[in-house]
Amino acid sequence: MKLVEELEKLGFEVSDEQKAAIEKKGWSDVISVSESDKKIQKVQSQLDNATEKLSQTEEALKAFDGVDAEGMKQKIAELEQANKDKDAQYQKDLQARDYHDAIEKLTADVKFSSNAAKKQFIADLEKEPLQMRDGKVLGFEDYLKGVQESDPDSFAKDPNGNAAKFTTPNGQQTDDNKADKVEESALRAAMGLPQKKED
After folding, report:
1. d(CA 192, CA 33)
2. DSSP-assigned letters across all residues of 14-47
3. DSSP letter string over 73-139?
4. Strand partners of residue 136
5. Residues 6+ apart with CB under 8 A from 103
6. How many CB atoms lie within 10 A of CB 10?
7. In 3D, which of 90, 92, 99 has the Cα closest to residue 136?
8. From 30, 86, 91, 185, which residue has the greatest number of CB atoms within 10 Å?
9. How much is the mean pLDDT over the chain?
10. Whole-angstrom distance, CA of residue 161 vs CA of residue 176
11. What is the dihedral of CA 7, 13, 16, 21, to 10 degrees?
């Protein structure tokens, strides 16, 4: 629950009963302050970019005073190309930032063996980025499983010495997680142990 997480970060204790009430009211997916700030920064960046382009255009037009027609055409062509190049670079930077934010969010629930391992994992993903569609990174779970198999030391281990399981950011488990949970539940029932409470 995003709202519960934000409250706990601020030092508030939220009971199970309060969590249930929040879920029932539909308040669990309230946007966090950090996510809200990122959206504001993105809009501000777009506004700053447009303002800068306008200023550059006005300055360039001042230079056209007294210039012959052919010289003006050349200046206009150069200015248009410069604006196209700037737009292309801006879109590239924007996509890179959106991709980085998406990767940060996806890796938030992955248990790495150290911060250095996490940074290297993200750096590798940015060096050879996966595809994005509608704001979602495609093939992330398959990529993660591949790295867990090829470089298991980069990930934290559970009490049995296996790589810690990955859960998606919204708290829903992958198919492997669900299978393990069913197996654990059956084992607890057979041993007469109480079932584990959901997080």
Report:
1. 44
2. --HHHHHHHHHHT-TTPPPHHHHHHHHHHHHHHH
3. HHHHHHHHHHHHHHHHHHHHHHHHHHHHHHHHHHGGG--BS-HHHHHHHHHHHHHSPPPEETTEETT
4. 133
5. 122, 125, 126, 137, 140
6. 8
7. 99
8. 30
9. 76
10. 17
11. -50
Residue located via tokens 């980025």:
129
Looking at residue 179, its amino acid is A
Q: Rounded to an integer, what distance in angstroms lies between the CA atom of residue 66 and that of residue 46? A: 34
Residue 137 CA: distances (Å) to CA of 6, 85, 95: 25, 26, 12
- Structure-block tokens of residue 58: 């006005």
Residue-wise pLDDT tens digits, 35-77: 666 767 777 888 888 888 888 887 777 766 666 777 778 888 8
Q: Report residue 122 as tokens.
A: 């993200």
The answer, yes or no, to whether residue 196 has pLDDT greater than 90, is no
Tokens of 47: 């506004």
